[in-house]
UniProtKB/TrEMBL annotation:
NCBIfam families: PRK07340.1 (NF005603)
Top-level taxon of the source organism: Bacteria
Gene3D superfamilies: NAD(P)-binding Rossmann-like Domain, ornithine cyclodeaminase, domain 1
SUPFAM superfamilies registered for this protein in UniProt: NAD(P)-binding Rossmann-fold domains (SSF51735)
Pfam families per UniProt: OCD_Mu_crystall (PF02423)
GO CC aspect terms: cytoplasm
Protein name, per record: Delta(1)-pyrroline-2-carboxylate reductase family protein
InterPro entries assigned to the protein according to its UniProt record, in alphabetical order: NAD(P)-bd_dom_sf, ODC_Mu_crystall, ODC_N
């Protein structure tokens, strides 16, 4: 039997998806989305899979666009040729119901997560010049390096990873972009020289314990369930007592493992939306350390879809 050639909206691979989502523009679209009162983000479905993986079903919509991100997270794939995050973002037109795009899910996840950290750093970092300490040299480590270079103008990076080969590969990538990059075996010691830090590890244990600089901005993105953790509990409590903690969304109240395991009242912390919707205050230029805790949200994927459609 002869079947007709498939037609319809484009199905984009990782490279084409990335090309539609440059970091500075994506950060601006995330900002616009947080000010858009038509945005709706239902609770995501998180389904445990046999063998330790997780299926995420994440819908979101505004007055024109509806999306659903369908991804799997498989920690056992770490260190193998298979990605730990796999899936797609399906983009629909609200008025007609037609599918407009199919975006590569891991690419959207990596780029929008890094762009959220970039947006937070632009607004909250007391000293945004760097160097930037990156703990974890995987997909998110690379995305954050590229995002902070493109969106903040950071030119110097310090990389820490359990895998020396991965750290070297990321440092080489930075140098290929004309940036300076070094490797450290001790991220806690490196904190003293880095006003910017990002933790993007598999979140199987605390990787930062040392007291932060007075002008520190730390974005913690690896832990997105109550049982995951990247930051020492005492460090989280130090940020709460002597600095500022901002979470990406109110959903962090039941997802931010770092903060929950530190016994903190996560619901009491300001969200990124709260920060962006109020006039600049003491956080701008303040010499107090800032922790930005990011757990993920389908609204970030909606912002990526909105930018891709344009």
């Amino acid at each position: 039997m002869n079947y007709p050639e498939p037609t319809g909206p484009p199905v984009l691979d990782a490279a084409h998806t990335a090309a539609l989502l440059p970091y500075p523009e994506l950060a601006r679209e995330l900002h616009r989305l947080l000010l858009d009162d038509t945005v709706q983000v239902p609770a995501r479905l998180v389904q445990a899979l046999p063998g330790g993986g997780t299926l995420f079903v994440m819908p979101a919509l505004d007055s024109r666009v509806a999306i659903t991100k369908l991804i799997t997270f498989t920690p056992a794939n770490a260190g193998t040729p298979r990605a730990t995050i796999q899936g797609d973002v399906v983009v629909f037109d609200v008025a007609t119901g037609e599918r407009r795009l199919l975006l590569d899910g891991p690419t959207v996840t990596a780029r929008r997560t890094a762009a959220v950290s970039l947006l937070a750093a632009r607004r909250l970092a007391p000293n945004p010049r760097g160097p930037l300490l990156i703990v974890g040299a995987g997909v998110q480590g690379r995305a954050h390096l590229e995002a902070f270079a493109a969106g903040l103008g950071v030119t110097e990076f310090v990389i820490a990873s359990r895998s020396t080969a991965s750290a070297r590969a990321l440092a080489d990538h930075a140098k290929s972009l004309g940036l300076k990059a070094g490797i450290t075996p001790d991220p806690n010691a490196a904190l003293a020289d880095c006003p910017l830090a990002v933790t993007c590890t598999p979140a199987s244990g605390a990787v930062l314990q040392a007291p932060p600089r007075d002008d520190a901005f730390v974005a913690a993105v690896g832990a997105f369930t109550p049982t995951m953790v990247e930051l020492d509990a005492a460090l989280c409590r130090r940020f709460a007592a002597q600095g500022t903690i901002v979470v990406d969304t109110a959903d962090a109240a039941h997802e931010a493992g770092d903060l929950l395991q530190a016994g903190l009242d996560v619901a009491a912390f300001a969200t990124l939306r709260d920060v962006l919707r109020r006039a600049p205050d003491r956080l701008d230029g303040a010499r107090t350390p800032v922790l930005f805790k990011s757990c993920g949200w389908a609204g970030w994927d909606l912002a990526a879809a909105r930018l891709a459609l344009r």
